[in-house]
């Protein structure tokens, strides 16, 4: 069953929400490829989903570090464990194992749980940091004024 993006999945950080929404799109594309029994499409979507998700993890971890989020290391460990698990599924798929249903179920459950629990926990710290950065940029007038002012 396709995942439908609902407002309860929003973190309130637009860029993160767009990235999460794109991961949902990948999961839904994977479901379509599974239903069509198109192994080439499954492999392509799987590769794209894994690559995009790893990029998203790195971006999210960077935001957490910049914000001084106190649980950024445990959060990264959760990401690392998930990435390792997905890597194992990818290897099994490449060896010819039919992991598609199992993988789709894992991705669907994990993403929703991760957004609602783990990601919800860092939102306040990241938003506060973003507001500080915006305020600082407004206060100092930007690089152009500092350089030529």
Question: What do these coordinates show?
Answer:
With 149 residues, the chain is mainly α. The protein has a single domain (14-143), classed as Hemerythrin-like (Four Helix Bundle (Hemerythrin (Met), subunit A)). The protein contains 5 helices and no strands. It has helices at 14-35, 39-67, 72-94, 100-140, 142-148. α2 packs parallel to α4. The longest helix has 41 residues, at 100-140. The radius of gyration is 18 Å and the shape is elongated. The mean pLDDT is 88.
How would the blueprint of this fold be written?
Elements (H helix, E strand, L loop, with lengths): L13 H22 L3 H29 L4 H23 L5 H41 L1 H7 L1
Structural class: mainly alpha
Mean pLDDT across residues: 88
What series of H and E elements makes up the topology? HHHHH
Q: Please report the number of helical segments.
A: 5
Kindly report the CATH topology.
Four Helix Bundle (Hemerythrin (Met), subunit A)
What is the overall silhouette? Answer: elongated
Per CATH, the architecture is: Up-down Bundle
Largest sheet: none
CATH class: Mainly Alpha
What portion of the residues fall into strands of 2 or more residues?
A: under 5%
- The total number of structural domains is 1
Head-to-tail CA distance between termini? 58 Å
Helix coverage percent of residues? over 70%
Mind telling me the C-alpha Rg? 18 Å
What low-confidence regions span 5 or more consecutive residues with pLDDT below 50?
Answer: none
The CATH superfamily appears as: Hemerythrin-like
């Amino acid at each position: 069953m396709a995942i439908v993006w609902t407002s309860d999945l929003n973190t309130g950080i637009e860029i993160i929400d767009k990235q999460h929404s794109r991961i949902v799109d990948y999961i839904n594309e994977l479901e379509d490829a599974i239903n069509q029994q198109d192994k080439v499409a499954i492999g392509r979507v799987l590769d794209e989903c894994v690559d995009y998700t790893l990029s998203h993890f790195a971006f999210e971890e960077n935001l957490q570090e910049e914000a001084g989020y106190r649980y950024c290391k445990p959060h990264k460990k959760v990401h690392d464990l998930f990435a390792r698990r997905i890597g194992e599924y990818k290897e099994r798929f490449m060896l010819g194992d039919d992991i598609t249903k199992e993988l789709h179920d894992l991705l669907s459950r994990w993403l929703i749980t991760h957004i609602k629990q783990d990601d919800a926990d860092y939102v306040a710290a990241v938003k506060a940091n973003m507001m500080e950065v915006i305020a600082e940029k407004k206060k100092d007038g930007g690089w152009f004024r500092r350089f030529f002012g």
